[in-house]
Please model this.
Amino acid sequence: VQLQASGGGLVQAGGSLRLSCAASGRTFSTYDMGWFRQAPGREREFVAAFRWNGATNYTDSLKGRFTISRDNAKNTVYLQMNSLKPEDTAVYYCAAKIGSRRVYEYWGQGTLVTVSS
Model:
């Protein structure tokens, strides 16, 4: 599986962005898809996931502002980010794994989101 993330950019605090991650392959619907982020000087952290069975989960601090969705017909997963804050500044990565695996196996190249105050 190859993943290509896009949609990052510079936005003012309070603004919105939608990230996209396009996946190759014909078995996209069988994969769990996730978004992670890594801020400067910090470890990569989990943001949200959309499992193959339709279940979603989020890191608690982002619930209500970020929404993950997927379109299996387009092999794409999205991350809608609203009410952005400067602390959301990070490189955002999409990732994929087979549903039965615990660890995400496939990673995109990342897309930079910069939120100005």
Observations:
- The mean pLDDT is 96.
- The two ends are 37 Å apart (CA to CA).
- The first strand starts at residue 3 and ends at 6.
- Residues 27 and 45 are 26 Å apart (CA to CA).
